[in-house]
Design brief:
The complex is a heterodimer of chains A (about 120) and B (about 110).
Chain A (H helix, E strand, L loop, with lengths): L4 E3 L2 E4 L5 E6 L6 E7 L6 E7 L2 E4 L8 E5 L5 E5 L8 E8 L10 E2 L3 E5 L1
Parallel strand pairs in A: 2-11
Antiparallel strand pairs in A: 1-3, 3-8, 4-5, 4-9, 5-6, 7-8, 9-10, 9-11
Chain B lengths: L2 E4 L4 E4 L4 E8 L5 E7 L6 E7 L4 E4 L2 E6 L4 E6 L8 E9 L2 E4 L3 E6 L1
Parallel strand pairs in B: 2-11
Antiparallel strand pairs in B: 1-3, 3-8, 4-5, 4-9, 6-7, 7-8, 9-10, 9-11
The chains are: A mainly beta (about 120), B mainly beta (about 110).
C-alpha cells in the first residue's frame, strides 16, 4: 500500500510570512495526526483528527496555526504568521484505528520548515 | 507534571553487544506503549507495541518490557549491528493520544 504523502519536503520563509503543508494519509485510515518535531526533540502532537472531526487540538497554537481535514481524507496545516520558533519538521501520521486505538502510526517523511 | 524521559545521552555500543534503552514516565497511566525507530531526515517507523497487561514482547532481535509499577519500559536490541544505528522513540497511549518521548540516539560501532 502507498505510504503517507507529505509536501513540500522543504520550505524556507521569512518570519511573519505564511506557509501551508499538505498530507495525504494511507487510504482507509480514519485517524490523522500532525506532529511538530524540533531538532533533537521527540514529536509533539499538534492536532488529531478522527475522520474529518477534531479529536484533540489542545497543543495547537490557534492564534497562528490552523488545520483542516476535508472529506475525512487529505489534510492541510497552515501557519500564519510564522515565527522563528516554528522552525521544525512537521510530521503527518495516520492510523487504521479510531481515535488512536491500539494501532501503530504510519508517518510521512515530514516537511522541514526553516523560518528566517 | 506529566513527563516521558528517555536516555538523555546518546548510546554508543560495540557491534554484537546488546543495546538497552530506557523509557520512564510520570503521571501517566498508559494503556500501551510503542517503540519507533527514526533515521535522520525520515519519519518514525513503528517497531513494537506492548500493552499494560503484558510484561514482555519479542520480535526477532528486539525485546520490550513494560513495568507499570516502576513506570518504565526497556527496549533491547540483541546482537546489535551498525545498521541498528538510529534514534529510538518511545510513545505512550494515554487519554486517546499518542505522546512521544524525546528519543535516544543509538550508535553501533563495528
Amino acid at each position: 500500500e502507498a505510504g503517507v504523502a507529505q509536501s513540500p519536503r522543504y520550505k524556507i520563509i521569512e518570519k511573519r510570512q505564511s506557509v501551508a503543508f499538505w498530507c495525504n494519509p494511507i487510504s482507509g485510515h480514519a485517524t490523522l495526526y500532525w506532529y511538530q518535531q524540533i531538532l533533537g526533540q521527540g514529536p509533539k502532537l499538534l492536532i488529531q483528527f478522527q475522520n474529518n472531526g477534531v479529536v484533540d487540538d489542545s497543543q495547537l497554537p490557534k492564534d497562528r496555526f490552523s488545520a483542516e481535514r476535508l472529506k475525512g481524507v487529505d489534510s492541510t496545516l497552515k501557519i500564519q504568521p510564522a515565527k522563528l520558533e516554528d522552525s521544525a519538521v512537521y510530521l503527518c501520521a495516520s492510523s487504521r484505528d479510531r481515535s488512536g486505538g491500539t494501532g501503530e502510526l504510519f508517518f510521512g517523511e515530514g516537511s522541514r520548515l526553516t523560518v528566517l | 507534571s506529566q513527563k516521558i524521559e528517555q536516555n538523555s545521552e546518546a548510546l554508543n555500543i560495540q557491534e554484537g553487544k546488546t543495546a538497552t534503552l530506557t523509557c520512564n514516565y510520570t503521571n501517566y497511566s498508559p494503556a500501551y506503549l510503542q517503540w519507533y525507530r527514526q533515521d535522520p531526515g525520515r519519519g518514525p517507523v513503528f517497531l513494537l507495541l506492548i500493552r499494560e497487561n503484558e510484561k514482555e514482547k519479542r520480535k526477532e532481535r528486539l525485546k520490550v518490557t513494560f513495568d507499570t509499577t516502576l513506570k518504565q519500559s526497556l527496549f533491547h536490541i540483541t546482537a546489535s549491528q551498525p545498521a541498528d544505528s538510529a534514534t529510538y522513540l518511545c510513545a505512550l497511549f494515554s487519554a486517546s493520544k499518542i505522546i512521544f518521548g524525546s528519543g535516544t540516539r543509538l550508535s553501533i560501532r563495528p
